[in-house]
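Table S2 (text version). Query chain:
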Amino acid sequence: MVMAPEVQSLLRAVAYRVGIHDGIGLFSADDVLSELGLIALRAALVFRPESGHKFTTYLWPRLRGRALDLLRLHTRVTRYGGTRPTYVPITCEDAMALSDGGDGNAPILANLLARLPARERAALIMRDLGGLSPADVSLRMNLRRDASQELRRRAVRRLRVALRP
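Corresponding structure-token output:
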């Protein structure tokens, strides 16, 4: 579906205004515009022209909200107000590659991580190997902060029990 030129320019204007017009994290500028385009398509489905508003007026806050969400998900504000990209959640295989110090313990760790429940494994990998803050982990897992921290604690307990001689 081709969008009207005014909607396309609105997508670029929102990305520029929020500061993600060059891309963000691993997303290119085209990826950001595609994500915002999906929001525009969803908004077009529920927009009521009889409300008396222009579609672009209706669309602006929705696009801006999603652009800010993308910014929050893919950058972290530093102490002095600058931003830096967050870490990308890594998979179990990536964790194994990172943990292989040449001592031959990587297959053991891979087996242990693979046996963890998926949500506990995700919380552990994002927090400890991915370097995300507890707030970022809870945001990405769509959980309360204490719930995501509890999942990580359970995973650590299971690993400790499994590694005992």
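Notes on Table S2: Strands lie at 75-77, 83-85. The mean pLDDT is 79.
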